[in-house]
Amino acid sequence: MSANDVVVHDDEDILTAACAARLVTRLTDAQAARGSASVVLTGGGTGIAILEQLRQSPAKDAIDWSRLDVYWGDERFVPAGDDERNDKQAREALLDHVGVDPARVHPMAPSDGEFGDDPDAAAAAYAGILAANAGPEDGDVPAFDVLLLGLGGEGHVASIFPDSQAASEDRRRVVAVRDSPKPPPTRISLTFPAIRAAAEVWLVTAGEAKADAVALALGGASELRLPAAGARGRSRTLWLLDRAAASKLGGLTGSVRP
Ligand SMILES: O=C(O)[C@H](O)[C@@H](O)[C@H](O)[C@H](O)COP(=O)(O)O
């Protein structure tokens, strides 16, 4: 497992702008090397702010959007047009404004879609989409170039909440989540085995309300109690924080191996 690299920025605006700039570099490098790239998006205020920063950046035109696969790490299981949908928010913030290939944008199913109100069927279908897009050496999940995660104050990532079934799932790559403590209650989420298929995992968060979770995760908390601790990329795990979120790290930045 990769060590945790920690980078701290002054405030949330600089954090999200710098993260958007990193995405340009990471995705253009992957496209130069292999012809295409893949990214896994997250919901939440910080995750969507990164996409807005990217939309506003002239450097976004360096990405060949038609050769990018877009996935989601989790989704709120609500109807297609609902403003709560992570994919709707991502489209409004960025995807509707760039030349993505609709066939390469892979949203999780809504609650009024082909699987009706059955999140287990929708989760299983998404696992099928991941498997269908995995390369010959990838197993059943693509080796995503970068997987973005926001962070909850109690340490959740994607829709993997503390002490939940999703946090201890070691077989299925995508699961339905019910009774989520963060509304809406029903969600679909990648599990740790799917998250860890990514080459790089970037945990991006801002604000004092996240400081305890950041310090505990980087201090070696268990992934069952504090799911952020279990989110690791194969070659890199990068924590991108603002000063407030990093305020309980005791100045610890750089490479941290709990
Ligand atoms: O759909 C969601 O709600 C998320 O994907 C969730 O994991 C989110 O990223 C965190 O809760 C952080 O959200 P904030 O950035 O708004 O704090």
Strand content: 15-25%
What would you call the shape? globular
What is the CATH topology descriptor?
Answer: Rossmann fold
Order of helices and strands: EHEHEEHHEHEEHEHEE
Query: What percentage of residues falls in helices of 4 or more residues?
Result: 25-40%
What structural class do the secondary elements suggest? alpha/beta
Largest sheet: 7 strands, mixed
InterPro entries: 6-phosphogluconolactonase_DevB, 6PGL, Glc/Gal-6P_isomerase, NagB/RpiA_transferase-like
GO molecular function: 6-phosphogluconolactonase activity
Catalytic activity: 6-phospho-D-glucono-1,5-lactone + H2O = 6-phospho-D-gluconate + H(+)
Function: Hydrolysis of 6-phosphogluconolactone to 6-phosphogluconate.
Provide a brief overview of the structure.
By secondary structure, this protein is α/β, with parallel strands linked by helices. 29% of the residues lie in helices and 18% in strands. Helix 1 packs across helix 2.
